[in-house]
Structure formats: C-alpha cells, structure tokens
Amino acid sequence: MVRTLPSRRRLARALALTPLVALGACKPAPDTAPPERPTLSLKTATTPSGAKVEPAVYSPAMATPGTPGALMSLAPLVDTVKGAVVNVEVQARARPAMGGMQGLPPGLAERFGMQGGQNPFGEGGGAPSKQGLGSGFVVDPSGLVLTNNHVVEGADTVRVRLEDGRSFAAEVLGRDALTDVALIQLKGVSGKLPFVKLGDSDGLRVGDPVMAIGNPFGLASSVSAGILSARARDIHAGPYDDFLQTDAAINPGNSGGPLFNMRGEVVGMNTAIIGGATGIGFAVPANLIQALLPQLQETGVVRRGWVGLAVQDLTPELARALRVEAAKGAVVAGVSAGGPGAKAGLREEDVITSVGERAVDSAGSLTRAVALLKPGSEVQVSLVRGGKAMAVPVKLGTRPTQRGEEEMTPRDATPAPLSKRLGLRLSEAQDGSGGAQVVAVESGSAAERAGLVPGMVLTQVGDQKVSGVAEAAQALTSAEPGGALLLRARVPGQDGALLRAIEVPAR
Predict the structure, then answer these.
(1) How far is it, in rounded angstroms, from Cα 231 to Cα 247?
(2) 12: number of Cβ within 10 Å
(3) What is the set of active-site residues?
(4) Going by C-beta distance under 8 Å and a sequence separation of 6 or more, which residues neighbour residue 466?
(5) Are 210 and 246 in contact (CB under 8 A)?
(6) Secondary structure of 65-78 in the HEC alphabet?
(7) Which residues contact 353 (CB under 8 A, 6 or more apart)?
(8) Residue 366: enclosing H or E segment and its boundaries?
(9) CB within 8 A of 487, min separation 6: which ones?
C-alpha cells in the first residue's frame, strides 16, 4: 500500500497533541513501589542442554572489521569499497525472436517490470530500448569490471557509471552463461580507478557477516548487510551451481554487484533471488570467479575439462550394494564411448572419491571439479572398484556444448573473411592435440552444406595437414574459387576421422 504524507492541517493537529500525550505518560508514581522482579544473571545462566551462556559484551575496542562477535558500524568499510561498485546500463535493439519469458535468469523479468511473460522489447522491431540496469565492481585500476552474464548478454551498448558520477562506455571482453559471469572493459579510462580484490570464498563460514552493495531498482550505491546463510546451494540454474546464500537484502538491480566480507574483500557476486521470498539471495563464489578470469581475459570464453561420464550420488544403499566403505562419492552410471573416461579405463559402477586434489562427495562436486581443469591436461582420478581403492590417470577432453546452450566464439577465432566466405568460424582445438575446431556454422552456408558442425576439429584441408587456426584459414582462403576442397576432421570423444568436401564459392 502506498502511504502519502499528511496534510499541513492534520500534521499541525498531530503536533499540537504531542505534548498532551507526553504529559499523560508522566503521571506521579504511586507511593507504594512495585514488587521486585527476580533477575537472571547471565554469568550463571545455562541452556537446556547444560551449556553455559556467556554474557554479550561490547566495547569500542571490539569495533574492528573481522573481529568475531563485534558490534560495529559498517560505515568505515562502506567508505573504503563503495567507489569500486558501479552501475551497469545496457541497451539492445528489438529482437522479435525473443518471444516470451522462457529462459530468462531469475529476477530478470522483475528488473524490467514485465508481467505475464511480456516481451521487454515489444512484438516487433523498433528503436533501441533500454534493456535494464545491473551492478558490477572494478577489479583492476585499468577499468576491468565483473558483472553477471545475464546483465550484458545480447547488449548492443554497455555504459558504466561510477559512484563518483563518472561514466564510461564499455566493451564485453568475455561471458560465461553457465556460471553467469561476465568481464567488461571500460573505454577511455585515464589514471587509476578505485578497485576491490577477490577474497577467499572457501574461508567463509555459515554465520559470518557479509555486506552487499549495488543498484537495486536503480537506487545507486545501496548497502545491505546480513550473514552467510548457507554454502554450496544448488538452485538448478545450471550444471555448476555452487551458490553462496545470504540474507543480506538483494533485489532486482543488485545483479552483478559484490558481496563483501568484513575485510572489504569480494567473496561473491550477487546473482539470483527467489521470487516472493525475503532474506534469500544467492551469489557466485569468488573462488569460482577467480578460476574463470584467465580464460575470460585471454579468449573471452570458458572451455572446461570433460571426462565423458554419467554419474549419480553415492547413497548408503548404493554403497552397501556395491560393497564399498566410502560414505561419499560419485557413482559412474554410464561411460561415453570413445570419451576420455573410456580411454582411461573407467567403468560403470566405479565410485569416484577425488579428482586431483579435490575431494568428490557427490555427482555435482565431480562435475564442478572436472570443469575447473584445463582441457588436454592429465589428472589422477581416485576411485573404488569392487571394494579396492585405486588411482587412474585421465587425459581430459573439452566439454562439448549441450543442446540449448549458447555456442560462444573465442576472440582468437577465424578471421572475418573466412567467416563471410564459407560461413565457418574456427578456434584452436581445446583438447591440446592440434587442429582447428569448428565453433560456429552459419545456416545455408557452404560449411553447412558440407556437413560441418560445431565441435569438429579440422586436421587436414586439401593436401595440407593443419595444426591450428592460422594454417586452416590460410588453406581455406587460398583455395581455388568454384572448386571442391577435401577436409579431414575428427570428433572429440570418437575414434577415427571423417571426410567432408566443401564447395568454395566463386569470388
């Protein structure tokens, strides 16, 4: 309900009554004093279980960030970090193909004020319309900013406004839809910008105090505080869910903003809320963001390790049935033919307990552990097979794009002339074995007619063996117009090679 301010006449009448109310509350005390009430000494109090209750104590010396149990003002902390928290404004042209609300991340519809699945850009084309406002934070004085993928996805223009009022155009350097993380670079930065550091999210304990700063509903530099409510939350937003949960107020517009610990370090990126709930917000852990940053900076996309297994949680019943003593782990339910796991000798009913130095206590933790490793690297997989513990070396492949996922093109992909001429985009093969990997094929192009699909790795073009994008692009662009060119390709996770013939368009 919206409440309006009282009229002047009603306000004056209310103020005139105030002294009377105050006087009425100050009547003389009766001659007889009220009976004394028993007091409880905290020094001697105990809980029902018999544990002693310590009295709460506060002194100015305790008002130091990071001091357990300290009652303090967050103002010094806010003053230290708020300059690095930014407002991210995005514009996008009308895209009729967007249709309704399917696929929008949590909280995105509310940010745009949409109801009932309406299209934020209207039903047809039109002039650019503001897609929305989000938050972000500067992590490098040169102007590198972290925000959510869903804040900048599909953006035609991005503009970032700092807390001090300065405004910069920005370029999207990289995005990862599966973890909802994006990296953008501010343009025209002179001097050094205020920035914040990523902290250790693994060091957080449930109950630790946290603070969020962002731009909820466009209200810049709004601060809220609370505690870490839970760790490792899977909210079914993606295959790598490992969210921090907090009761610090997070609202539409906070997306991409930082979640701080009491040392002023960013321990999470505020990302999602549960519709209709209060005190329940979720943040991407800082350690996960830190693991993605190198790839986002170098290529703009994230390539993940892949074993090629179908797994499920180890339950007590499965442990008894498989005759294993392990209490936690991931049970192999299926092995992809020709995949890295199959080549390494992994089998169905193996119980995986660790990958490298990371313990595996569930199917989800196995998926996340492998995803953080570099494709082409070798890792020791510890497992229990038939009651016997063993370790198996596995050379990881590259996780293929799943149906419904966006195919991201690295910045070091195929030169534009090749893309326009053949409808083909290539990048360096991510499994470390050499070749040029197909990352995108345009509909109706020569590449599509040749039967090329994303994921294939070209190892030969015409008579020339190719070890990377540069060689493949040179061979393709120098091919005789109007002729047909033989291609040799392999599919990661499968044995053997495929032959394809591509018709080179006349110039």
Answers:
(1) 12
(2) 11
(3) 150, 180, 255
(4) 435, 436, 458, 459, 460, 472, 475
(5) yes
(6) CCCCCCCCCCHHHH
(7) 326, 328, 329, 359, 360, 382, 383, 384, 389
(8) helix 363-371
(9) 450, 452, 458, 460, 461, 499, 500, 501, 502
Integer angstrom CA distances of residue 77 from 64, 73, 135, 390: 10, 8, 19, 49
Q: 488 - beta bridge partners?
A: 460, 499
Contact 52, 46 (CB under 8 A): yes
**Which among 176, 479, 436 has a CA at the least distance from the CA of 425?**
436
The CA distances from residue 279 to 282, 288, 386, in Å, are: 10, 23, 46
Per-residue confidence in pLDDT tens, the chain, 507 aa: 333 333 333 333 333 322 322 222 333 334 444 444 333 333 333 333 444 434 333 334 444 545 555 557 899 999 999 999 999 999 887 544 433 334 444 444 443 333 344 433 333 344 445 568 899 999 999 999 999 999 999 888 999 999 999 999 999 999 999 999 999 999 999 889 999 999 999 999 999 999 999 999 888 889 999 999 999 998 888 888 889 999 999 888 899 999 999 999 999 999 988 876 678 999 999 999 999 999 999 889 898 999 999 999 999 999 999 988 888 999 999 998 888 999 999 999 999 999 998 999 999 999 999 998 988 899 999 999 988 999 999 999 888 877 677 767 677 655 555 656 788 888 877 666 778 888 888 888 889 999 998 888 999 999 899 888 888 888 888 888 888 889 999 887 677 789 999 988 875
Q: How many C-beta atoms surround the C-beta of residue 453 within 10 A?
A: 13
Q: How many residues does this entry show for the chain? A: 507
Hey, how many other C-beta atoms are within 10 angstroms of the C-beta on 406?
13
Q: Cα(442)–Cα(29) distance, rounded to whole angstroms?
A: 88
Give the DSSP H/E element, type plus range, for residue 476: helix 469-477
Q: Which of 143, 134, 138 has the alpha carbon at shortest distance from 169?
A: 143
Q: Return all residues near 231 (Cβ < 8 A) that are at least 6 apart.
A: 204, 206, 244, 245
Looking at residue 369, what DSSP letter applies? H
Q: Diameter of the chain by CA atoms?
A: 113
Determine contact, residues 89/160, Cβ cutoff 8 Å: yes
CA pair distance 139, 183, nearest whole angstrom: 10
Query: Pick from 463, 468, 460, 462: which is nearest to 490 by CA?
Result: 460
